[in-house]
Amino acid sequence: SGGGLRRRITHFTPFCDAVSKKKAADRHHQRSSKRAFLDIIDFKINRHQGMDESQGLGIPTVELANGFNIPILGLGTSHDGGYSHSSVLYALKECGIRHIDTAKRYGCESYLKKAIRESGVNRESLWITTKLWPGDYGYGATKAACLESCRNLGVDYIDLYLMHWPDANVPGKTNRELRAETWQAIEELYDEGICRSIGVSNFLISHLEQLKEDCDIIPHVNQAEYHPFQKPQELVDYCRSQGIVFEGYCPLAKGLALSHPDIIKKAEKYKCTPAQICIRWSIQNGIVTIPKSTKKERIWENCQVFDFSLSEEDMVSLNSLKKNSKMITLKFPLWKEH
């Protein structure tokens, strides 16, 4: 049974008291988050702690189940031309961006180390998310990969560490067993303070249910594709019922949303761009949103979404677009419900 995978760890040091308090706080905030997310629009936002608003926009934040606050808007990076050093510097210094999303898979962690150093932004003011690639799943490999990411990024801790995909297809182990083993290592990295928050990416409800049965800490975040043509509302609702913050990548549907006539019409109505309509719609739905761009003018444009709101009628209209097009698919690892 799934419960048979649940781990039991005895802490032999005085550190156990602090760990117990942290986990108790997680459970308390998780219960509070369930209530807070019942209304899709009523998400809790705060000013990002440490943000000097004279340096940027003062982007609002969403509180995670452990009490940390993640900026609701970030800058995504990727491999295959998805990183520009000068644009990251511009985002940090000129646009008020304090939330950077990356992954070991993208190969740009060491470049971000240089950009962060050159930006002059205090580490405490930043929210850095990186991800564990399935090739590093497993207890020992996970811990080694996390420490490697810390070295590459030039940081002592990671604000949010995510399992990148639910599956890894390792011979001799089921995907569920491997997820549980990997998550155990991530929980310990969290207990040790190396990861301040922990989560998953591209997990379905079945994966989250199994993880809840097999492990101790419910993920603080689930990051998945989210845009007007791909709205996994059942998954979003489930995450909110469990106190898991939903984070959306690919908010512009790889540019396809920018030419949709309904989105163009709304951009004309609000005197903004189609990209701003998509990002504002995502944020107004309570989704932590991480658009990706390597162009300075686009990064600036993507940040100008906090001085207007979409009407309830327009939100309903955008929520009702019936296309269901998924932009991100991989042959490996397979994204299956098992």
Overview of the structural elements:
The protein starts with 14 loop residues before the first helix and ends in a 19-residue tail after the last helix. The radius of gyration is 19 Å and the shape is globular. The longest helix is centred in the first third of the chain and has 22 residues. The N terminus and C terminus are likely disordered. With 338 residues, the protein is of the alpha/beta class. The chain contains eleven helices and eleven strands. α7 links the parallel β9 and β10. The chain has an eight-stranded parallel β-sheet with strand order 4-5-6-7-8-9-10-11.
Quick structural gist:
Helices cover 39% and strands 12% of the residues. The protein is of the alpha/beta class.
- Which outline best applies? globular
Distance N terminus to C terminus?
A: 14 Å
Task: Name the structural class.
Answer: alpha/beta
Determine the fraction of residues in helical runs and give it as a percent range: 25-40%
Q: Segments where pLDDT lies below 50 for 5+ residues?
A: 1-21, 31-56, 330-338
Instruction: Give me the Rg, rounded.
Output: 19 Å
The run of helices and strands is HEEEEHEHEHEHEHEHEHHEHH
Number of beta strands: 11
Q: What is the overall number of helices? A: 11
The strand order across the widest sheet is 4-5-6-7-8-9-10-11
Beta-strand percentage? 5-15%
Largest sheet: 8 strands, parallel
If you average the pLDDT, what whole number results?
84
